Amino acid sequence: MALLQISEPGQSAAPHQHKLAIGIDLGTTNSLVATVKSGMATVLQDEHGHALLPSVVRYMPDGTVVVGHDAQAQQSVDPANTIASAKRFMGRALSDIANRAHIPYHFVDSTEQAGLLQLKTRAGLKTPIEISAEILKTLKAHAEKSLGIPAGSDELTGAVITVPAYFDDAQRQATKDAARLAGLNVLRLLNEPTAAAVAYGLDNAAEGTFVIYDLGGGTFDVSILKLTQGVFEVLATNGDSALGGDDFDHRIYCWVLDKIREATPNFAPLSEQDTRLLLTKARQAKEWLTDNHEAQIVCRLSNGVLVDVTLSANEFVVLTEQLVQKTLSPTRKAMRDAQLNLDEIKGVVLVGGATRMPQVRLAVEAYFKQTPLTNLDPDKVVALGAAIQANTLVGNRSDHDLLLLDVTPLSLGLETMGGLVERIIPRNSTLPVARAQDFTTYKDGQTAMSIQVLQGERELVADCRSLARFELRGIPAMAAGAARIRVTFQVDADGLLSVTAREQTSGVEAHVVVKPSYGLSEEAITRMLKSSFGSAEIDKKARMIAEARVNAGAILSAVELALKHDGELITADEQQAIQAEMVKLQTLSLGEDAVAINQGVDQLNHATEAFAAARMNASVSRALSGKNLDEIKL
Amino acid sequence: MSLNYFQLFDLPETFALALSTLETPYRRIQASAHPDRFVSATPTEQRQSMQLATLANEAFLTLKNPAKRAEYLLGLKGIDSLNDSNTSMPADFLMQQMEWREALEDASMAKDTASLEGLFDEMQAEGNRLTTVLTDLIDHKKDYPAASETTRKLVFIDKVCADIQQAIERLD
């Protein structure tokens, strides 16, 4: 592991150096990586000139992993070890997966994390997180090669990774874990429709209220945004995280299967190979029907049966009408939540490969009573938007005029008596958001309370997704209803939740901070990192030291830059105190003691409290007319 | 002393407030305080940024909605308009409430989305009317007891509107 280079305070090599940051669209069907070069957002291609990397991962007999086109080509040959559409399984339990019988994989309940699934491959049990990490690693390698930086160096500052707006907390956390396994520093998780809006809005200097209709391979999102002078404000979002182009393929597949059964009454169930073959043929027929009146599906199954059927465009429309209608219900919900009439919508932007289907375009046009905008490549627009945001986040854009104000897609709440959900944060709340609510005890002398955190729109606990369950202990014994337990939900800018509970009537405080429980454990991540490095000697201790050094390096350069810009906001003595902590931390990070390095980080962080407040104050004062932040109660 | 939401946005403490007037300072604060501006900052700065951005969102949400704005503004004047002991409503409004509730239930039972939408529009119109009344009561007449009663009516209308939305959603 290379040592981090740390320059002397005040001698930063190149303060305005362009930092390298990438945007990644981690799609169900295809994934892309983009960056901003000389002010222009560009999708990076691999050495064969491909911009799109099929999101397919194959575990080979020799223990290697193949990702992309080569893996996709072998799907029908080696279906159980060639995983496509892993995104559909991210953060999901076995029971969440519809049509499991028609998916040629061996699913099992996860051994890593209760409630999550794994896939059985020849390389062992794999979580969807590990499979997605393989795709991210491949994209990272493409980007490093294309940008001319050494693989595995620290020159790539970070990445923005897009997720469907309608992804819940479990799916978002899974995506972040995958990035961590791939060795990527995640600057931010960005909602796909918001990313598309950024690319579209900046490209067209658009102002007004726009709808982003994003039908991808496996997910559907609709977001309504107000664009005002570089501010992208999401008014409402809705969707279906299990609806996409794959489902259209599946309808064709079922239709073909019916035809086969009509012709061959005693037809035996399909093998995995044949299932994959027919699904591939179905996808090709769907794509062909975008520009043609009929599609012929011809193939020979492993038992010798010849399939030769023709699907007309009209029949395809009838087969999939229900799926198209299924996208309009979330669309209407978003419009109602945003409290907008159709005539207030300035434009409707289509995103995602599945919006190429004529019946989808016609349905959108009929609902919004206007021709949708299709002047950007629906496959690339999300990655481009992510690259633009990544470039802004690392500070390459000097003009601070791009601001994204996104929302939480699903309501968050708690279980109360009788299996009912008490909503704490309603859907479509602008992020970051915090909300507190007081609860009390049910019985005399009750000293503990079980708190279940839920996400979803339904009133019954059983119909919502359980994010976490924890116990608050140490409540002083009191009469029923006398205790005051304040539960605070905080959702950060990535859309991830943390929960705090505190008993506040007594001097005794019980205090718990919970991160929802379905994320991978530290041990699991270490083990996965270890196995992904083959027999490499990376162990938990080495990883902890490496991470502590990265943290130390990050805070040292942040403080150094802050002192350089705003040092005059504090006294010379205060500056010296901070610099003393910096020197201490620099010394510590040369050593091998991760705990000591982390303590040094904490101490430096603590030493900069007043300085940070002064800087925030100065910055907000500049934004407003001389408001003093000391007066703002945080 | 901490700033109230009006002071945070540098706005006069009046009930009358155009959305565009509120949006400008809100966006300015977010442009400098949002966590996206502090991605490579120290943990302390990131925490402060999240707290300030959260506060600005809460303040914006409160001042944007007329019922919440009225409740907040009356609160600044020492009046707890939604207090339990303060829930008296005139008989005619109670009658009207029951009629609205019945209309909502009937339309839900009949799965009549058009009627629900009609009822929603009717409630919105009544909400707009009450907002105008509140401007007069708070900003001009300074009749806070009457404003409290109107605020409670507006809160009720918001609640019925939310219930109508939910009923429409269930039928969709």
Q: How does this model look, in words?
A:
The complex is a heterodimer of chains A (634) and B (172). In chain A, 35% of the residues lie in helices and 25% in strands. The longest helix of chain A is centred in the C-terminal third of the chain and has 27 residues, at 540-566. With 634 residues, chain A is of the alpha+beta class. Chain A contains 14 helices and 27 strands. Among the domains of chain A are: 20-191, ATPase, nucleotide binding domain (Nucleotidyltransferase, domain 5), CATH 3.30.420; 245-319, Actin, Chain A, domain 4; 412-514, Substrate Binding Domain Of DNAk, Chain A, domain 1 (Sandwich), CATH 2.60.34.10; 539-631, Up-down Bundle (Substrate Binding Domain Of Dnak, Chain:A, Domain 2), CATH 1.20.1270. In chain A, the strands form seven sheets. In chain A, strands 1, 2, 3, 4, 11 and 12 form a six-stranded mixed sheet that branches. In chain A, strands 18-13-14-15-19 form a five-stranded mixed sheet, sandwiched between helices. In chain A, α2 (128-147) crosses α3 (169-181). Chain B is an all-alpha fold and 172 residues long. Chain B folds into two domains: 5-64, Orthogonal Bundle (Helix Hairpins); 88-171, Monooxygenase (Up-down Bundle), CATH 1.20.1280.20. In chain B, 74% of the residues lie in helices and 0% in strands. Chain B contains seven helices and no strands. In chain B, α4 packs antiparallel against α7 (144-171) and α6 packs antiparallel against α7 (144-171). The longest helix of chain B is centred in the last third of the chain and has 29 residues, at 113-141. Chain B is globular, with a radius of gyration of 19 Å. The N and C termini of chain B lie far apart (49 Å).
What's this, in brief?
With 634 residues, chain A is an alpha+beta fold. Chain A is 35% helix and 25% strand. In chain A, helix 2 crosses helix 3 and helix 5 packs antiparallel against helix 7 (313-337).
